[in-house]
Design brief:
The structure holds 2 protein chains of 2 kinds. Chain A is mainly alpha-helical. Chain A has 21 helices and no strands. Classes of the chains: A mainly alpha, B alpha/beta.
């Protein structure tokens, strides 16, 4: 008995973690074995690699560059709706990509609002497909993330520094150099790396707005090798390339972040005395309005286009919606079955290897895991028949790292604060879980389940590899409608998808927080 | 008799030696300077810290390697003695059945215990709806239903005011007399020790000394204790 006594067992968590690792590594090994290295990378593959890195670089640079003024405005201004705006910056995380893409097309597309306005001046319409469209969509998703992270950096500057600066009469450029620039130098590199890594594996954006020889990402190339050529060897080879790329970028991001957390407390009020000039105030106002407009207008456009169609959706949209609800439910259940035992095990304190298993899902992109599972399933049965279970499983594995981030800190707290009391009452194992850990974790479980349901509902990834024409989740159905140029019906279905995703998140998150005592 | 035979308890880099015995039904205060290892001693007896060498026995039964909940003792911590999300009655019921499957007899015992500590009618309240003193009473009600031989107190009343603390100690004394429990309580206040503890274990310089009579020890304290008491 060399350790402190503990109220929960690590065994179930270890088994689950081993299972998750086995699925991911199994898929990766299958991919590696199947990869036809002899052929090497062809010209199109190199083009895809170059495009992937180029678009991710541009997306990261634009997202962060634009986020800095927005975060600065939010950091030093108080205004009505600031809280709502900051909360809204978290929404893109659970926003289905296909919904955002439809919104962006409605604003920036050939027949979109911007083109309409340009038309008034006799100018030609803008084009959204290609590199700039892909980057635009990535900025739409990552500008809010970058803003939140940079804002956090701003708010971690101790209030006393601003007081001291005010006392010394520091303002304008001097303020930037003295306080703000050092902070940015510290936080920006890791944020760039995180967004770069996220954009490397982005599939749905490239699928809908990219394509063609000039705008194909590796993920998209994997999909095309699969669907169009059914060239498993090439898909596997590309998967290996993608995996190397993601791990490199992920390692870089982790190394640069070094323990910086995605934090809370974005509402902390720090009194500031600088930036009171009219120019600075109007500048901040303009930046805030522009950013809010950039994020909200596409949603508004999509909703306006979709609303009429919503009442008149074809039956296959509803059956796809039903499929999505079922997949999301199974995925959420799977996630909880994986995350809760792992949380209990990690909360006991020695979670090194377990935590690593938890973030494996970040290293391998869903499409790569999907490719591997396809290769693994094929000798045993028709992979297409497994489309929905595999989608649910891969979605759950993808959400696992985020769920653990939400669950583990709270679980650690509960075990630390109430573990001894439970032990002294001989509450171990199930009684401890049932009467202490699970009730105390309820809000976090609700939030994690909400994330899982929303992300799974909106996911347009691995399902595209497996689905035969008769099977569709709602995002896939929206994509098919777009492909058939039924843009209004697509917008209606996207609106339904948006309602389902946010609704599922809202219900689960709300359910978790109901009847919770301090 | 509670016996610690040549025990060495390690807590990180800290090491505490203990070779002592406590008579049944005794009420013993554990006193000593901060950081001297009072909590380490109590936690080892309760089973939260392993004993590196030596053994702990209660009534000649070796309890050194027993899990905390299986030991013939109950312990109140400095804080968090109640689960905040469970009702008072559930918190007390945990002392009878850790899985909370209570028989009608068990429920009756819970009620009786709550009545005894003066919390009658507060069964359904949550800890957050109780005052500090009431929370202490609820924890003591649980001690009552647990019916364990040994009661260990790690300053559970430290946050209460002097009058309320004295009231709780009196209640503890009464409960010990009623149930015949042996009491070991950490104390920072010499008046608390004088109030209910006949003997004191002095913990200082990496060792827990055998119990001595409270009065003479406090009247004529050794240097290490004198420095601490001021």
């Amino acid at each position: 008995m060399a350790d402190r006594a503990q109220p929960v067992s690590t065994a179930p968590g270890k088994i689950v973690a081993a299972g998750v690792a086995a699925i991911i590594f199994g898929a990766l090994v299958a991919v590696a074995l199947r990869a036809e290295t002899g052929r090497g990378l062809g010209a199109p593959d190199w083009a895809a690699l170059r495009f992937t890195v180029l678009q991710a670089t541009l997306s990261a640079l634009f997202s962060v560059a634009l986020a800095i003024p927005v975060a600065r405005a939010l950091a030093r201004r108080r205004f009505k709706g600031r809280r709502v705006l900051i909360a809204l910056l978290g929404a893109p995380f659970i926003l289905p990509v296909i919904v955002a893409v439809l919104g962006l097309i409605a604003v920036f597309g050939r027949a979109g609002w911007v083109s309409d306005v340009l038309g008034l001046f006799g100018l030609p319409p803008v084009q959204i497909y290609g590199l700039h469209g892909v980057v635009l969509a990535h900025v739409f998703f990552n500008l809010p993330l970058a803003t939140r992270l940079i804002l956090q950096g701003w708010q971690e500057i101790p209030g006393e520094r601003f007081r001291l600066a005010a006392q010394l009469g520091v303002d304008g450029w001097a303020m930037v150099r003295l306080i703000e620039l050092p902070m940015l130098m510290r936080v920006v590199p890791s944020i760039l790396a995180v967004i770069f890594a996220i954009c490397l594996t982005s599939f749905a954006v490239a699928l809908t707005l990219g394509g063609g020889p000039k705008a194909t990402t590796i993920e998209l190339a994997i999909y095309q090798a699969f669907r169009f050529d059914f060239d498993l060897g090439r898909a596997a080879l590309l998967s290996v390339v993608q995996l190397a790329l993601t791990i490199a970028a992920g390692a870089l991001a982790l190394w640069l972040a070094r323990g910086d957390g995605f934090g809370t407390g974005l509402d902390r009020h720090i009194r500031r005395w600088d930036g009171q000039t009219t120019f600075a105030r109007y500048g901040d106002g303009a930046v805030t309005v522009l950013a809010a407009g950039f994020l909200l207008l596409p949603m508004l456009a999509m909703a306006l286009n979709g609303l009429p169609a919503l009442l008149d959706l074809p039956p296959q949209v509803f059956s796809a919606a039903l499929t999505s609800v079922v997949v999301a439910s199974i995925s959420t259940a799977l996630l909880l079955l994986m995350a809760l035992p792992m949380t209990a095990a990690i909360a006991r304190g020695r979670g090194g290897a377990l935590e690593l298993a938890g973030i494996l899902g970040l290293a391998a992109s869903p499409l790569v895991i999907g490719t591997g599972l396809f290769i693994l399933i094929r000798p045993w049965g028709n992979p297409l028949a497994w489309a929905l279970p595999v989608t649910a499983l891969v979605n759950a594995i993808t959400v696992l790292p985020f769920a653990l981030r939400v669950l583990v800190p709270r679980a650690r707290d509960v075990v630390a604060r109430q573990g001894r009391l439970a032990l002294s009452l001989d509450m171990q194992g199930w009684p401890f879980l049932r009467h202490v850990l699970l009730p105390r974790l309820k809000p976090q479980i609700g939030f994690a389940a909400g994330l899982a349901a929303a992300l799974s509902m909106g996911d347009l990834g691995v399902i595209t590899l497996f689905a035969d024409p008769d099977v569709a989740t709602l995002p896939l159905q929206v994509y098919r409608l777009m492909g058939a140029y039924q843009m209004d019906t697509a917008a209606g279905a996207a609106l339904l998808l948006l309602l389902l995703s946010f609704g599922a998140f809202w219900i689960l998150d709300r359910g978790g927080r109901a009847h919770v005592e301090a | 008799m509670l016996k610690l035979e040549d025990c060495i308890i390690r807590n990180g880099a800290f090491e505490l030696h203990a070779n002592l015995s406590v008579a049944e039904r005794a009420r013993v205060a554990v006193i000593g300077p901060s950081g001297a290892g009072k909590s380490t001693l109590i936690e080892a007896i309760a089973g939260f810290l392993p004993v590196a060498t030596g053994r702990i026995t209660w009534k000649a039964q070796d309890i050194t390697d027993m899990p905390p909940g299986a030991r013939p003792l109950t312990m109140l911590f400095q804080e968090d003695n109640l689960f905040p999300h469970l009702s008072v009655a559930q918190n007390v019921g945990l002392g009878i059945q850790p899985n909370l499957r209570l028989s009608p007899t068990d429920h009756a015992a819970v009620h009786q215990a709550l009545d005894r500590v003066g919390l009658g009618g507060m069964d359904t309240r949550k800890p957050s709806e109780l005052s500090g003193g009431q929370r202490s009473r609820a924890a003591l009600a649980r001690v009552l239903v647990q019916r364990r031989d040994l009661l260990l107190l790690d300053e559970p009343f430290a946050a209460l005011g002097p009058a309320l603390r004295a009231e709780m100690l009196d209640l503890v004394q009464e409960l010990c007399e009623e149930t015949g429990a042996t009491l070991l309580m950490i104390s920072h206040a010499p008046e608390d020790a004088r109030r209910i503890a006949g003997e004191c274990i002095l913990v200082a310089d990496g060792a827990a000394q055998p119990p001595q009579e409270t009065g003479p020890l406090l009247d004529n304290p050794p240097k290490v204790l004198r420095d601490y008491l001021g």
